[in-house]
C-alpha cells in the first residue's frame, strides 16, 4: 500500500509527478521511423527512450504501460499501411515473451502495452481490440547475444498461434512490440499470423536498436557510443 501514497517518479529523468514526464515522453513523439519493410519504431533505443523501455520491461515499472501504450496509439495514423477492420476496429497483436520471462515479470509486458494502446483509442471514441494470438514455445531460449540468423533459428517453429486468441481470418492487425533489434522476431510473428489468415498491415515498436536505420538528423544524439556499449544495448533489446 505504501507505494500508492508516494508520488510517481519519472522513469526517464527521476522527476516527480508522473510515471513518465512530458519532456521524456516527447522523445517518443516525433516518429514513427521506418526500420525495415513494414516495421516502424517511435525512436531509437537510446537515452531516455531506452530508460523508459527498460524500466517497463525489466524493472517492474508497470505504471509505464499507460503512457507508453498511448505513445504507440498516437503513432498509428502516421503508419501508412496500418488500418482498422471494415467495422472500424483496430486489432493489435502483442509479440509474445518466453513463458518463463513473462512469469518473472508478472505477465506479458507487451500485452500491457497493447491493452493501453487499445484503451487510448477507446478513450478517443474509437474501437480497438487486443488479440493474444501468438505465444512463444518454452523451448525458445533467451535471444540475448544472438545475431539475426541465430534468432531466426531460435524462433523457427517456436512462435505458435493460439487459435482462441486469433481474430477471424482476413482481419487486418498491427503487431506491437517494445523493441525491435534484428527484426527476426517481427518477421517470425508476421509469418505465423499470415499463415493463419491475418493481414499484418504494420509492426510498431517503441524503440529500435538496429544500427542500420537512417534516423532523421535531428534525432541523432551526438555522443560517443563504444562498440561494447552498442552491443550491450542490442542485447538488452533482444531479451524476451
Ligand atoms: Zn522525465
UniProtKB/TrEMBL annotation:
Q: Which SUPFAM superfamilies would you find in this protein's record?
A: PRTase-like (SSF53271)
Give the UniProt keywords, A-Z.
Glycosyltransferase, Transferase
Q: Does the keyword Glycosyltransferase apply?
A: yes
- Matches recorded under InterPro entries: ComF/GntX_DNA_util-trans (IPR051910), PRTase-like (IPR029057), PRTase_dom (IPR000836)
- Keyword set includes Transferase: yes
Q: Which family does it belong to?
A: Belongs to the ComF/GntX family.
Name this protein carries in UniProt: Putative amidophosphoribosyltransferase
Amino acid at each position: 500500500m505504501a507505494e500508492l501514497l508516494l508520488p510517481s517518479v519519472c522513469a526517464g529523468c527521476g522527476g516527480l509527478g508522473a510515471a513518465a514526464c512530458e519532456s521524456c515522453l516527447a522523445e517518443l513523439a516525433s516518429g514513427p521511423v521506418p526500420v525495415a519493410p513494414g516495421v516502424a519504431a517511435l525512436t531509437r533505443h537510446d537515452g531516455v527512450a531506452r530508460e523508459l523501455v527498460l524500466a517497463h520491461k525489466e524493472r517492474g515499472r508497470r505504471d509505464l504501460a499507460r503512457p507508453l501504450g498511448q505513445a504507440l496509439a498516437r503513432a498509428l495514423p502516421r503508419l501508412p499501411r496500418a488500418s482498422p477492420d471494415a467495422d472500424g476496429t483496430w486489432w493489435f497483436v502483442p509479440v509474445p515473451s518466453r513463458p518463463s520471462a513473462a512469469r518473472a515479470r508478472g505477465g506479458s509486458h507487451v500485452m500491457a502495452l497493447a491493452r493501453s494502446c487499445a484503451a487510448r483509442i477507446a478513450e478517443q471514441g474509437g474501437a480497438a481490440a487486443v488479440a493474444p494470438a501468438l505465444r512463444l514455445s518454452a523451448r525458445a531460449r533467451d535471444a540475448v547475444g544472438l545475431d539475426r540468423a541465430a534468432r531466426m533459428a531460435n524462433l523457427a517453429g517456436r512462435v505458435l498461434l493460439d487459435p482462441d486468441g486469433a481474430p477471424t481470418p482476413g482481419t487486418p492487425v498491427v503487431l506491437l512490440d517494445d523493441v525491435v533489434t534484428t527484426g527476426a522476431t517481427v518477421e517470425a510473428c508476421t509469418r505465423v499470423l499470415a499463415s493463419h489468415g491475418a493481414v499484418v498491415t504494420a509492426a510498431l515498436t517503441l524503440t529500435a536498436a538496429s544500427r542500420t536505420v537512417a534516423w532523421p538528423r535531428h534525432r541523432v544524439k551526438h555522443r560517443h557510443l563504444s562498440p561494447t556499449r552498442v552491443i550491450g544495448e542490442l542485447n538488452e533489446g533482444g531479451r524476451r
